[in-house]
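Loading example: each entry is read as two labelled lines plus one structure line.
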Amino acid sequence: MYAKIFSLFLFILLLPVAAQAAPPIAHWQTANGARVYFIETKQLPMVDVQVAFDAGSARDGDKPGVALLTSSLLTDGAQTADGELNADQIAERFADRGAQFGAGADREMATVSLRSLTDPVLLQPAVDTMAAVLARPTFPQSGFERERKRMLIGLQAQEQSPGDVADKTFFAALYGNHPYATQPLGNTENLNELTRADVATHHARYYVARNAVIAIVGALSRQQAEALAEAVVGKLPEGEPPAPLPKVDNPEAARVVALVRPSAQTHVLMGIPGMTRDDPDYFPLLVGNHILGGSGLVSRLSDEVREKRGLSYSVYSYFQPMRVRGPFTLGLQTQNGKTVQALQVLRETLQRFVASGPTEQELDDAKRNITGGFALRIDSNAKLVDYLGVIGFYKLPLDFLDTYPARVENVTLEQIKDAFKRRVNPEQMITVIVGGGADHFTGEKS
Amino acid sequence: MLKRLLLVILLCAPWAAGAEQAVSDASASAPAVALKSNPLVHEYKLDNGLKLVVKEDHRAPVVVSQVWYKVGSSYEPTGVTGISHVLEHMMFKGTAKLKPNEFSRIVAANGGKENAFTGRDYTAYYQQLEKSRLAVSFELEADRMRNLTLPNEEFLKEVQVVMEERRLRTEDDPQALTYEHFNGVAFLSSPYRQPVIGWMDDLENLRIEDLQQWYKTWYAPNNATVVVVGDVDPDDVLKLAQKYFGALKPSEIIPPKPRREIEQRGMRRLTVKAPAELPYLLMGYQAPVLTSVPADNAWEPYALEVLAGVLSGGDSARLAKHLVREAQIAAGAGAGYSLYARLPDLFMVEGTPAQGHSVTELEQALRAQIKRLQDEPVSDAELKRIKAQVVAGEIYERDSMFAQAMQIGMLETVGLDWRLIDTYVERIGAVTAAQVQQVARKYLTDDRLTLAVLDPLPIDPGKKPRAPGDALGGHNVR
C-alpha cells in the first residue's frame, strides 16, 4: 500500500535549486570606531537598524542582573541637545512616527533595535532619539526601582514555569563558575543589592563605540546608511572592547540535577558545552545535529520519542554557538510517569548517533533540506538584519552567507562522526529534570 | 522547535452586541464601502469549489503555500472538543500513497519548512519553499485533502502527543489555565467557550471513528481556500492548482449551527486556584466583530481596535504609562481585540499586579482606565499616534510573506472578503475620538464583563498553603 511514490517527487528531487546569491554586504567603521554592516533592499520604504554591544549578562561580573537592568532602563530618560526627555516622551517620539524601538539583553549581548519608515521626516527624529537613549541615558532613580521590582516579578514568573526553571538550572549546572552560568534576570539576592550607580557604571564601560556593531537593512543608499550610522552611535565615546571571556571547560563528570515541582509534565534537558561561532567543527556539528534533533518532525529524536512512542510533543537538540562554547542541548517534556522511559530513549538515541553517525541517506536528506531551503533564511529584511548582526558581532567573513550552502554541501559522514566523537561524550552529560517525575531521580549522581 | 503550533489567540477578539444585533448572520455583514482589488492579488475558484488566492511578492525567490479549512474548535459539538486539532496532527500520518510522516520527509528533502495550526475558526496547513517547489506542496496537500488513511495505531500514539501538548501549554501554565476557565464562563452558549486543544477528558475518550467522520465532514475542496504568496506567476499557480486540486470531488458541506451567545445578564466573576507564584487578572467584555455587526455599525470594530491601541499600543499607551510607570500598580498590563473572528467575541484586558499591590487594586486601576475612556474622548495626539502606527505597520507587515498569506487566509475562512485588508488603514484612519468614546460606553460595561483571578497555590511542596483569598485581598504579592 505504501510502496508507490509519486513520480513527481522523484523528478523534483533531481532538479537542483537555482543558486541563490545572498545580497552584497557593505562594511565600514564609524569615525569613533563602531563596526557597521549594511544591506540595501529597495522594495519597501522601511529600514531596520540593530546595534549590538558585548554587554550581555556574561559581563555582569559580581552584579548579576545589571546588564538586563541597564538595557531596560535606557528608555526611561535621556539627555538631548534640546533638553531632557522622560520615559513618556521617549516612547511617544518613536510611536508618533510609527517607529518600533526595542532594547534587550541576553547572555551574550545587549541589543537595541529600530524599525522605521524611510521618509526622513519620520526616520530622523527616531534616529535622534535612539542616539540619545544609547549615549545619554539618565537612569532616573524611580525608574531604577521600578524596573528592579519588575525583574523580581520576572524571577517569580520563571518559578511557575517548569521549562524556565529547567533552563536556568541547566545553564547553572553546565557552566559552574563561568559567566554564562548566570541568567540575564540574575537572582533575588543580587538584584536587591544593585544600585543605580551599578547601572551607570555598566553603561559607561560597555556602551562604547569600539564595543558596538551596527546592522542596517533597508531602502537607503550607502551614503544615507553612513550618515545614519554616524547619527546613531556618533555620540558614544570610543572606549574599548572588553577582554575575551574565559574559555569553557567541560564538566568533570556526568551529573543529574532533579527538582520536584507540582506539574503534570516533567521537563528534561541534557547537554554539555558545545561550540563557538567560529568553531572549526561548526558545519559538521550543524549538519550532524540537523539529523539528530534539529530538523523538526523528521529528526532521529523526533522519530524515536514522538513518532514511534508518543512520549513528547516537542523533542529536539541544538548547538547554540556563542563567543565561547555555548551549550549543546537535548530536550523533551513528558507526563511524569513516563520520565524514566523518555530519558532512556533520549540517552540511547544520542549514544547510537555518536557511536555510529548518520547514514548516507540521512546526510543527503539533511543537505537537501538546508541548502534547498537556503533562500527562505534570507527572504525578509527582518531575517537579513539578524544575520548581519551575527556576522558583525562574531566577526564572521562577509561571504558567510554566500559560502554557507557550499560548506554544508561539503560536509562528509566521516567529519560528522569524528566531530561528534570528539565533542559530544554521552558519558559526560549534565541532565536536568524538573517536574512531578523528578522524584525518581533525586539522589541520582550519574 | 515546537511543531504544529496551536494558535490559542490569547488576547483578542470581540463578541456580540446586545439582543438588538445579535441576530445578524455572518453573511449579512458586508461592509458598506466598495472594495477595490489589489492588483497584485488574484482570486480564482475551481469548478469543484476550491478557492485560490495568489499574491505576488517578488522580493525573494521563495513561496509560501497555505491551505485553510473552514473548521476549528468552534465547529465542535461537546464531547469531542479538540477533534479538529487532533485531526490536524493526523494529517501527517499517511494517505493511500504515503506512509506516516512521509509527507514531512518529502517537504524536508525539498528544502521546505512546514507546519499546521488550528484555531477556533480554522485549521490551516502550510509549506514555505524555494519557488520552483510549489508543485510539491500542491501535490501533497491535494492528496491529503481527500485520501487520508487515519490508521488507528498511529492515532493511539498521536493522541498521546496531543495530551503532552495540552500539559505543556495549559495544565502547567497557570495563566493559560486561567484563560481556559475564563472562556468557559465568559461564553455560555457560544462554542468559543471550548478550548482549541480540547478538554483532557474529551481527548481521552476520542476514537478513530470520530476522526474519520470529522475528516469526511469538513475536508473537501469546496470547504478550503489555498493561499499562495511569493515570487510566482498567478497564471502558472492556477494551472498547477487545476492540475492537482482540480480533480478532487466536492462534498456537501453543511455549515455549523449558529450557536449564538445568549445575552449576558450581569457581571461574572471566577477564581482559579493553581500552583503559581504570581496572581493574574483577566477581564473580557462581550464585543462585536466585523462578521456580527450590521452594515451601519461596521465602524464599531475599527473603533474598538483603536481603543485597544490607546490602552496598550506599546510603551506610549495608557496602561504602560499610567499603570506600569506612574502608579506602578501593574508589573505588566495589556488589552487586546481582534475584529476578524467568525463569531462575536471579547474585548480583553489583563494584567499582573506589581510588587506590593493586590489584584483588587489592579482591577480598580484597570476599570478606572475603562471609565476614563467612557467619560472623556481620547486626545488628538493619541488618535494620531495610533493611526501613524497602523500606517507604518501596514508597510512592515509586507516584510513577511507568511503574515500576508495569514491575513488573506484568515479573513476568507472566518467569512470575510480578503479585500477588506486593503481598507484597514483607511477604516482606522476614519475613526473619531467620539466613536472611540461611543464604543467604550456601549460595550465596555459591567453587565458585559467577565473577570477571572488566578489565586496562586504554593509551588514548593514544603511551603504552607496561602490563606484563602490572599491574592484577592489587599495583601502584598509576596
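The CA atoms of residues 30 and 229 of chain A lie 7 Å apart.
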